[in-house]
Design brief:
This protein is mostly beta strands. It is built from four helices and 44 strands.
Length: 661
């Protein structure tokens, strides 16, 4: 295998400790049932092979197959939903222009699968790719197509169909970069292929909290509270972003599943020989860990019980088949030669292979790792100057730990009302406090989590709090008096600002750049007061689990990160090109704010606006780009630049796509 420098680094670091197992060690050998060499397609390194494993056309009379996921019906039969194209086309032309969704069935999850034909021939001439299937929360069967279609769902009450078009997925960017979900103008391949706006590599799972979760090509967690079509709200960035020993480019084909209380992703890195990585998370949204190698094509996972193995040149599109919360098998789309050498009407092609997997052993292995990491978190001292106390009588003593890798407080707390666990620090003067309250859905009990400012640690102390709970949503209150209450669900950013005796509350559903003001109140907390993180079990006797990420408490004007705190630049701008908006900022040094629009298609840069920012406060800016054409798309670019510095020396920058009304 030819290794790029990054690939070699990752493989070395992953495999250096031979005593540590990774996902690749739990593949099981395939039991051959009809292994032949003569009269079938394929290069020598995939011969002999079992033509009854998975789904293939062994003589290439008709089809090349790709994608594929397995769904078991109520009668114990196994259904594979996949894509195919006529073998007279090359691989490139086949998947890109001729791919159609199909259905195959077998009495064994490993195959052989019998092709029953197209799944939705009545819709768009049967076009479909990245095809996968699942059972919905209501028991119906759903099929997904993306890449060559915008991102579509087809449903039926029977696994045999007929499948009717339900609709297209709806995506809510939620303040994140929409190009992480649908292809946009920054993806050159999508521009060339004419698939701007399409989703790609879509995988859908049913979460145990009765919601639907989506991953697409860029591995961004998206969750729908309103059925399989969505809207799917983007809740974080790319799952692999910033992970140690993980390539930060050319990652695709993610698959996701949930087992034994843990979310798993397997994602393929196509920049160094189809090497695939395994990630885990407690909530499926934040704090993903790289668990090492899932597989690579030279590792010999396509081996039979008698030791014979096949070495496929291309190994992509992994999907998992699970039963009773355990992985039983992985599916892979494979080609015997490089994609460019799989031409029409030749002796090379693609098929779908099913490789059995030791799901029980794998679950026990990962559970041991995760439990050991959690135990270590609870023995890690809190970073200075944080302290912790249980306030008032609580049914059960609390427990607090700190995860240094994820900058996350982990808090088990019981109680209700003003009684609970308080992680705090003493502060004076004007302050800013913000934190990301992570998903509360993994807590075994009801839970309340949030920010609290209090006069002292006594039972009668004046308090102001901004909290989220599964029962009441968001509540901002002063001494028990509710100032603002609204329905929402963690993860959510919370922020409170103290200026003299005035305390203001903000929330943000995505990141800390787009804040919504939720109210303000007056409270005299004294010259020295206590600010921190508060949690309890919302009345349940057993402790609930709260997690707080990236807590930032500082004296106003002495931020950990300088620049713009928030802005109100709209997503849709008037054709006049004149936009008035506000920027809030907090700096140690003198900075300028820099604003510019750049045309998405032509890359033309419009007039730049640059203004001096005082050390802290809010500026109202008017940006006048001149007349704009309705319907045109622009990149809104915002930077914080040192005084007299060039824009390339920005200490902070952000961008988003905006449309002309």
């Amino acid at each position: 295998m030819k290794l790029t420098p990054v690939t070699a680094l990752v493989l070395t670091s992953t495999l250096v400790n031979a005593g540590e197992k990774t996902l690749i060690d739990f593949f099981l050998p395939m039991e051959p049932r009809n292994r032949v060499s003569d009269g079938i397609w394929g290069a020598d390194h995939v011969l002999p092979r079992d033509i009854d494993n998975g789904l293939e056309d062994p003589t290439l009379e008709n089809w090349c197959y790709w994608d594929g996921s397995i769904v078991k019906d109520d009668d114990g039969r196994y259904h594979m939903y996949a894509s195919r194209w006529n073998q007279a086309y090359s691989h490139s032309a086949g998947w890109n222009k001729q791919s159609k969704g199909i259905h195959a069935v077998s009495d064994n999850f490993c195959g052989p699968y019998t092709d029953l034909g197209e799944t939705w021939p009545q819709w768009n001439n049967g076009s479909g790719h990245n095809v996968v299937g699942l059972r919905m929360h209501d028991g119906r069967y759903a099929l997904i197509s993306s890449e060559v279609t915008p991102g579509n769902v087809f449903v039926s009450s029977s696994p045999f169909g007929p499948f009717q078009h339900l609709g297209e997925f709806i995506i809510d960017p939620n303040g994140f970069y929409e190009g992480w979900a649908r292809y946009d103008e920054l993806d050159d391949g999508a521009v060339r292929a004419g698939v701007l706006g399409h989703l790609s590599n879509v995988m859908i799972i049913l979460r145990p909290d009765n919601r639907y979760m989506m991953l697409a090509r860029h591995c961004v967690p998206m969750i729908s509270d309103n059925g399989i079509l969505g809207p799917y709200k983007m809740l974080n960035g790319r799952a692999w972003e910033g992970l140690e020993n993980m390539p930060q480019f050319k990652n695709e084909d993610p698959t996701i599943w949930y087992s034994d209380g843990i979310y798993h992703i397997v994602v393929n890195h196509h920049g160094g020989g189809d090497i695939t990585y395994h990630l885990t998370s407690e909530d499926g949204i934040h704090n993903w860990s790289n668990r090492g190698l899932a597989f690579h094509k030279k590792a010999g996972i396509f081996r039979y019980t008698d030791g014979i193995r096949n070495d496929w040149n291309i190994v992509q599109r992994p999907t998992v088949y699970t039963e009773n919360g355990m992985v039983k098998a992985f599916n892979f789309s494979v080609i015997d030669v490089h994609k460019g050498k799989d031409r029409g009407s030749d002796n090379h092609g693609s098929k779908i292979i099913v490789v059995p997997f030791d799901g029980d052993g794998f679950n026990r292995h990962i559970r041991r790792i995760v439990d050991a990491e959690t135990a270590q978190v609870y023995t890690t001292p809190l970073p200075a100057p944080w302290q912790v106390v249980d306030l008032g009588p609580v049914p059960s003593p609390g427990k607090t730990g700190f995860n240094t890798r994820f900058n996350t407080f982990r808090v088990e707390a019981s109680g209700s009302g003003r009684h609970g666990r308080f992680i705090y620090r003493k502060m004076t003067g004007d302050i800013s406090a913000r934190v990301l309250v992570l998903s509360q859905d993994i807590s075994p009990e009801t839970v309340l989590s949030g920010l609290m400012f209090r006069e002292n640690l006594g039972p009668d102390a004046r308090t102001v709090s901004s909290t989220i709970s599964r029962t009441d949503g968001f509540v901002f209150e002063n001494e028990g008096k509710v100032i603002r209450k609204q329905s929402l669900r963690a993860p959510y950013w919370l922020r409170m600002e103290k200026r003299g005796n005035r305390i203001t509350s903000f929330i943000s559903s995505s990141n800390d750049m787009n804040w919504e003001k939720t109210g303000e109140t007056i409270a005299d907390l004294g010259a020295e007061f206590y600010a921190g993180l508060f949690a309890h079990s919302d009345g349940a006797k057993q402790p609930g689990l709260s997690r707080f990420k990236d807590a930032d408490f500082h004296v106003w004007g002495e931020p950990l990160k300088e620049g713009v705190v928030s802005h109100t630049f709209p997503d849709r701008i008037p054709a006049s090109g004149k936009i008035t908006f506000e920027v809030e900022f907090e700096n140690r040094q003198t900075l300028d704010v820099f604003v510019e629009l750049q045309h998405v298609h032509t890359t033309e840069k419009l007039k730049a606006l640059r203004r001096r920012m005082p050390p802290k406060g809010t500026l109202e800016l008017t940006y006048d780009a001149g007349p704009l054409k309705p319907g045109e798309a622009y990149w809104f670019v915002l930077k914080s630049i040192p005084m007299h510095g060039h824009e390339n020396r920005a200490v902070q920058s952000t961008f988003k796509k905006v449309l002309v009304k």
